[in-house]
Amino acid sequence: MEHLNALKRLAGAFFLAFLIGLIAFSAQDRSGDKISRRLRDSIAESGEESLFTAWVFFVDKGPNPAQRLEAVEASLKARALIRRLRHRGPENLVDAYDVPVYAPYVERLKARVHRIRHRSRWLNAVSLEARGRDLIELADLPFVLRLQPVGTSTWHDPVSEPKIQARKPIRPLDEYRLDYGDSRAQLELMRVPDLHEQGFSGKGILICMLDSGFNALDHQALDHLDIVATWDFVNNDPIVGDETGQMGTGSHGTSTLGALAGFYPGELIGPAYNASFLLGKTENTDWERHIEEDHWVAGAEWADEWGADIISSSLGYRYDFSHGESGYSWEDMDGDTAVVTRGANIAAGRGILIVNSAGNEGEIEFPLSTLIAPADSPMVLAAGAVDSAGRRVNFSSVGPTADGRIKPDVMAQGTAVRSAVPSARDAYGWVQGTSFACPLTAGVAALVLEAHPAWTNLEIMQALKSTASQADQPDNRMGWGVVDAVRAVAYSPTAFYPPAEFGVRRLENNYIFFIQYVDRLHWQKNPLNHGQAVKYRIYTRPAVERLQEYKMLVELDSTTFTYDNRGLLDDEAFTYKITAVDAEGHESPGAYTVSR
After folding, report:
1. Residue 493: closest CA among 461, 531, 530
2. Residue 584 CB partners (closer than 8 Å, separation 6+)
3. Are strands 562-568 and 551-557 parallel, antiparallel or unpaired?
4. What pairs with residue 479 in β-bridges?
5. How much is the pLDDT for 213?
6. What local confidence, expressed as pLDDT, does residue 435 receive?
7. 181-490 matches 2-150 in CATH topology
8. Phi first, then psi: what are they for 162, rounded to 5°?
9. Which whole number is the average pLDDT over 213-237?
């Protein structure tokens, strides 16, 4: 009976989702415009005979999707099932996102397009290549909800940083059990060797690396790895190294993998050298290191199927580059607009911890940011770069997000990082970029999960942020600071959480004779509190006065999710903290945002 009731609840949820989709579809159909403005502009500029890469979203998942859920649940691999049980419970293992795209819809498209690239069950869409005039015709199909371009970007290698004298070792060279060689500084900065001394090495953790080519996997520092599966999402085959005549060459993935999990004492040791791995090639390096978000989404869905615990992604999507396709602006970095960010949010909702490079775009005038997607997601741990002394390097991207949240989240070494290089089986080199701060951070996350296998992805994020070097005074240049592996493992997750997605927007009030400014604060109910919060407290202090204590600004009831701090001058900037309060007066830890 309980099983029948569960199916009824699922059927009801699907019916509601169908109605919402139908309403959205009807509204777009009446407007006569299912094609996004960006795609329409691209077609107008390049011509209807030009080839475009586009997403086609469907109105639903076909008939009887609720009945197909049982088959989806039965098909879950053991690791995926265990991870979902830990994060979602036995009554909510699968949902509408897990139902595959309705195959007859895809078959109807095949005859009209150049090729289908990927099917996304999470987005209920396919990515494809088609001429502009064919895309215009697809918009007339009744099961097509909308069309938009596949987001593209060109990855920016970081500008060279000045040579900085290496930090002296924290301990005598012979005090550690392992000989870290030249990789010692990048690990000591995060106190990783102390966890290695305790026996933690990432064992039992499955990490998916999404990157460009993984050449030289027989490198002496990599040949010990347990590689569970590989897939090339650019060329659609299992070989993730270079192949003659195929798109995409390079070994960026080799070096990120080496930074995370290399093991050759005296030369290189990564933080999680005993973890298991999925290697996904998602970048087409033939087109000016041109990267496309549909490969990333396909890689994340593949990682979910295999039961990955962590995704380490040294890629990102932002600007308008190759082939005239449209990219994303800083205003799209709001945690929910970029398709790749939406995919990351769904992945995180299935219990995967996602660590992503913050970007190598440097600083920009506030309130603009230089973040890349999906690092803008509130459910993604964005890693920025510091030097071996823990100082932010100039190329590391900065926040805030477009909706005013602090980013990046944490920092790790991103310059003079020691790793494997593929030129020879015993070759090593120095690499730099947030590309390498990311796998170092992901390696620490693996150690925390190894130490606390019952923790959720969000609890690991909380532990890493709450114990980082500037956790009490986060900002948009270094987030919560450099990760501290020892403190993160020792952390006790709170049972009562601050509100979610706390952000701020600076607004201008022009009164003709004078101008005043408003900081509009916004937040959301944290579902982890299960309705315990009865009120919220907002505190503030001047952003430049880091030693000054916070003062309470206002106390609000739990049904309020915005607050305007009015009457501000242009040069006034504040750090805000918000807490939740339960019926007994217990106050949660704080969430933070900065108005400048």
Report:
1. 461
2. none
3. unpaired
4. 475
5. 83
6. 94
7. no
8. -60, 150
9. 94
What pLDDT, on the 0 to 100 scale, is given for residue 284?
Answer: 62
Residue in the block written with tokens 């139908």: 22
Decide: 402 and 509 in contact? Cβ < 8 Å.
no
332-375 per-position pLDDT tens digit: 889 999 999 999 999 999 999 999 999 999 998 877 889 999 99
Give the pairing type, strands 283-284 and 290-292: antiparallel
CB 254 within 8 A of CB 314: no
Nearest to 505 by CA among 495, 494, 519: 519
The answer on pLDDT for 566 being more than 90 is: yes
Closest CA to 173 of 193, 192, 202: 193
Quote the CA–CA distance of 105 and 144 in Å, as a whole number: 9
List Cα–Cα distances, 97 to 147, 182, 235, 421, 594, in angstroms. 19, 45, 26, 39, 34
Tokens of 561: 């999710």
- Lowest-pLDDT range, 24-28, 146-150, 265-269? 24-28
What pLDDT is recorded for position 291? 61
Among the CATH numbers 3.30.420.40, 3.40.50.300, 3.40.50.200, 3.10.180.10, which is that of 181-490? 3.40.50.200
What is the three-class DSSP state of 210? strand
Task: Compute CA distances 514 → 83, 184, 564, 596, whole Å.
Answer: 56, 57, 19, 21
What CA–CA distance (Å, rounded) separates 546 from 299? 41
Question: How far is 415 from 181, CA to CA, in rounded Å?
Answer: 17
- Which homologous superfamily does the CATH classification assign to the domain defined by 500-594? Immunoglobulins (2.60.40.10)
CATH number of the 2-150 domain: 3.30.70.80
Give buried/exposed letters for 555-585 (b at 16+ CB in 10 A, else e): ebebeeeebebeebeeeebbbbbbbbbbeee
Please choose, from the candidates 397, 427, 470, the residue with its C-alpha nearest in 3D space to the C-alpha of residue 158.
Answer: 397
Range with the lowest mean pLDDT among 134-138, 192-196, 242-246, 250-254? 242-246
Token pair for residue 150? Answer: 């596949």
Q: How many residues does the chain have?
A: 596
Q: Which two tokens stand for residue 330?
A: 């800083």
Q: How many CB atoms lie within 10 A of CB 18?
A: 16
Cis peptide before 374 (omega within 30 of 0): yes
β 206-211/276-281 pair status: parallel
210 pairs with which residues across the strands?
A: 280, 313
Please state, in angstroms and as integers, the Cα–Cα distance from residue 345 to each residue in 45, 457, 466, 498, following that order. 33, 12, 21, 19
Going from N- to C-terminal start, the domains of the chain cover 2-150, 181-490, 500-594
Query: Over the stretch 47-60, which tens digit does the pLDDT of each residue have?
Result: 999 999 999 999 99
> What is the Rg, in whole angstroms, of the alpha carbon atoms belonging to the chain?
24
Closest Cα to residue 286, out of 340, 250, 237? 250
